[in-house]
Fold:
Amino acid sequence: MLHSTPLRAASRQSLMNRRRVQLVGALLIAALLPYLLRAYITEGTETLTMSINAFVGNIAAVIMALWIRQSIETYPGVRSSSINLPAAAASHGLVLAAILFLRVGYDRVALLSGFLFHLIWLYIVYFAVQRGSRMAVAIVPFGRIDKLGAIDRVDWKVMEQPTLADAADCQAIVADFGADLPPRWEGFLADAALAGRIVFQVKQLMESLTGRVEIEHISENSFGSLLPARGWFHLKEVTDLLFALVMAPFVGLVSLMVAVAIKLDDGGPVLFRQKRIGHAGAPIMMVKFRTMRVIAPGDPGDRRSAAMTSSDDDRITRVGGFLRRSRIDELPQIWNILKGEMSWIGPRPEAQVLSSWYTGEIPFYRYRHVVKPGISGWAQVNQGHVAEVDEVHRKLHFDFYYIKYFSPWLDLLIVFRTIKTMASGFGSR
Structure:
């Protein structure tokens, strides 16, 4: 049964909550202030030119960071506190790379202080306005709405009367458009839309808040098209290849150190190879660093159990435990990326024996193979490692969300979260 939760006192949006104000403030603090400070204490035409170049670069970085944040913050579970640093670092880093590539003179102090002032401004806005804020949503009490109450990041209010006054303290309204609504409630939703109120369909709001798309049969799907965005699909292949080529020297150096550590630990083979299911259901031979003791294969049931990893698995070696927590064990899969079999970001490829089992147990499971598997994915940064059927079922909902909202922005968000996951060891086994 869904119950209303007490709503927090409604507050008018302050000036600091407006994107334009945040942008102007960032431009003043992160671009104009460093320029004025440097222009005041330095002399000479050449120095002034470099300060102007840094000023223009800081403006570009501020605008780019806002664009990145606006594009990523639409996804579920994203807080400004976790996206501010990556967005600012990425934008200022790209500007610096462009300056170095074009061989343009620039003021290092102004560029660095612009980045620091920009970061300070973003966190001032976060602590002053955004921290602790919660969305209040009014619920039209008909249809499939019971699951909403399990989401505690929102203050829910079950409406009693079909009037705008009953939803006055809420930022949005949610309804099951497929339910048989009484005429008065249908009229209310039309009036709410005409009044400019945000009205969500319950299924889309659930997806937005949980990051999961629940689908059991093709007839129930809400993808629009069963194929993801093909433009990004092909561009992503090129991006994966180029980034793999850039990262190859670094990965090679790290791999050499890891190989020595594995050999010193137990003297066994460095690499672990396993047949897994890739794009379009084609089998691939995935490569990773060996993190577990080598055990001779047994009967088919044993092979399925051996393909699973439990918490505190006693087969994991000392070095293997660190490699798994840090995700360094996945680095050799750069070879699969160079071969065009995998991507940096995508649903994790399952072992062939497990994939066959899941396909027989879970409806529509094979649909996850419509995109290339990845080293990291939406399910990994939200749920972590799973093996049992009920856990895989939930993981599949995360994979479906990734496929439905397949885009460069979702991939960028996963990259940011993967870095955090590598530092924390979240979800490793």
Observations:
- The CA atoms of residues 345 and 411 lie 6 Å apart.
- The two ends are 36 Å apart (CA to CA).
